[in-house]
Amino acid sequence: KLLSTNRSPSSPMLAILVNAASLSLLCAPATPSARPAVRRAARIFLSEESTKVWQMEIDLGKAGTANMRMRPTMDKSEAVIVQYALPFGLNVENQQGKAVCTKDGTGGEKVGDVLRFTTEWKMGLPRGDGLVSTAASFGGAIGWQISLFDVAKATSWDSVVEALVSNTPERTDSVTLIFERPLSS
Fold this sequence. Notes:
Elements: E1 2-5, E2 13-19, E3 22-28, E4 38-40, E5 42-47, E6 53-59, E7 65-70, E8 77-85, E9 88-95, E10 98-101, E11 114-124, H1 131-138, E12 143-150, H2 157-165, E13 174-182
Antiparallel strand pairs: 1-2, 2-3, 3-9, 4-8, 5-6, 6-7, 8-13, 9-10, 10-11, 11-12, 11-13
């Protein structure tokens, strides 16, 4: 089933090809982008605790950086962080409740990688501890806020799709994806 929207001649056209349990995603502006399609975006530190934890510093483009801790879901795996400039393409499929990559991507994701997190944009109150954010909160100033969407905790496949397509040129210039890649024994 092909869905497409085009709000005005100058706005981006969003095309999503959704098939029962799979997703092929292309977010494309009406004019081609001169930016490179891919940027590497993280530093990963492994913790040698009894339970392995990945500590990551993730580049969120213009939004800054995020520090994150993530537990692997597989016995032998590695984290793969990919950042695409918009427009971006992604091929993942819902397999046993996981978003599994079905086609190698230009950003480094490979068949079998599991999408664990993606950047997501939602309307919300300003964040922070400063006077400006406090005053804005009392004043009801809401705006687009970036966060990392935990794909493993998604309640539906539609919520995964919504998080991915929330990365639009009106809000950002890139999308950050965190995959877990199984390693062979």
